[in-house]
Amino acid sequence: MELQVKRISVGTTFKLVGVGFLFSVLPFTVLAGCTAAMGLNSLSWNGEPLTGWTALIASPFIGVFLSAFFTMIFGSAIAFGLWVYSLFGPYGISFKPIDHDKPTT
Q1: What element of type H or E holds 94?
Q2: 22 alpha-carbon distance from chain centroid
Q3: In the prediction, which pLDDT does 104 show?
Q4: pLDDT digit string (tens) for 75-87?
Q5: Extents of the domains making up the chain
Q6: Is the pLDDT of residue 103 over 80?
Q7: Which of 46, 66, 69, 100 has the largest count of CB atoms under 10 Å?
């Protein structure tokens, strides 16, 4: 289905960008923390290398920090770009509606 909209709110834009970055960056940093815990590489925080259990514990926090930072930068740019695009007219958003008869898993 497609919905014609005039503009997407800034909050919705940040929510979509934030969720996208969180679920893509966080698994990567946790994987990097696991490899650093096994001694295959090291993470770096504030110029200091992190290895072992310290890297494993710090990796989710690094992922959340990176996700928040990227969301602020790219979310602002995307919100501005969509606002400029909305000045030229409405645009379509394709989506899949919720099927209320089907149980969610």
Answers
A1: strand 91-94
A2: 4
A3: 66
A4: 999 999 999 999 9
A5: 2-88
A6: no
A7: 66
- CA 12-93-5 angle, to 5 degrees, is 75
Instruction: Name the 3-class secondary structure at 17.
Output: helix
Q: Quote the CA–CA distance of 43 and 33 in Å, as a whole number.
A: 7
Amino acid in the structure at residue 35: T
Structure confidence by residue, pLDDT tens digits, 16-51:
999 999 999 999 999 999 998 888 888 888 888 888
Neighbours of 88 (CB within 10 A): 7
**pTM, whole model, 2 decimals?**
0.80
Core vs surface per residue 2-23: b (16+ CB within 10 A) or e: eeeeeebeeeebbeebbeebbe
